[in-house]
UniProtKB/TrEMBL annotation:
Residues 1-14 have a biased composition (Low complexity). Pfam families: Acetyltransf_7 (PF13508). SUPFAM superfamilies: Acyl-CoA N-acyltransferases (Nat) (SSF55729). GO terms for molecular function: acyltransferase activity, transferring groups other than amino-acyl groups. This is N-acetyltransferase domain-containing protein. The lineage of its organism: Eukaryota, Fungi, Dikarya, Ascomycota, Pezizomycotina. It comes from the Eukaryota. Residues 127-262 form the N-acetyltransferase domain. Residues 1-26 are annotated as: Disordered.
Amino acid sequence: MISSAVSVSPEAPVFGDASPSKPPASDEIVLRPARLSDIPIMGNICTDGYAPNPVTAYLTPKAHMYREDNIQQHRQGCRRRFLNIRNLSIIACLASDPSTIVGFGQFSRLGDDHGAKQFTRDRGLRERFWIYTLSWFFYFYHIVENIIWPDRITHKARMKEFESWAADDDEIYWKSHPERGIRWHANSIVVSPQFQGKGIGKKIMLEGLKRAQNERVIMGLTASVEGEYLYRKVGFELLGTFSHRVPGDDKEGGGVMIWYPEGTNSKT
């Protein structure tokens, strides 16, 4: 259920809840801040969740042959976002068994306003020091890891093309509108396939929206065809459809979406 078109970087698609008719998540699902030790499980969830869609088939045509390569890519992407000082990573797990992770969300605080600076300050000097140190450690660790276990699944030319499409949509919907630069951005909302349709994606999203509402700033994201339904239910509006779609994708829907906090005049 990854977006079937493009607007964000290929390693950070937004994932939607595809079965809205099923009952919502109950108190058996709890949310907590992500930990570095959660990254391997997050990578597995991404691999399982993003597999059956046109974009991953187009960009990584050999992913079904080399599962470990696929996991490695997702794991590195989750870790890079986690170690960004402006990132908020949220884990959804079973209340009865907190070690069972069923989904997660990763959000970025963009802009240079008071809210963005306060979010960074609130993490504390010690936490910021460790994030900075670990980000450099894993920067070199990923380089070495990719040398030892090179990528066998990505179609390099298609990926380069995909990244140019993403840049086009970023320019159209965000950079050409400076007022939208101050925002929260949902990079990934991912739910394990066996737990989809229970409102877990919505629960994670609402937790992120609390931040945006408290700071009175917008939130942006890229929605798949399936995910668009979920995001409209929590108040997102479609800014526009994707400027490009991968060959073979004949679905309509999805695109770049925006959420406006209550009590603001952001639309004008």
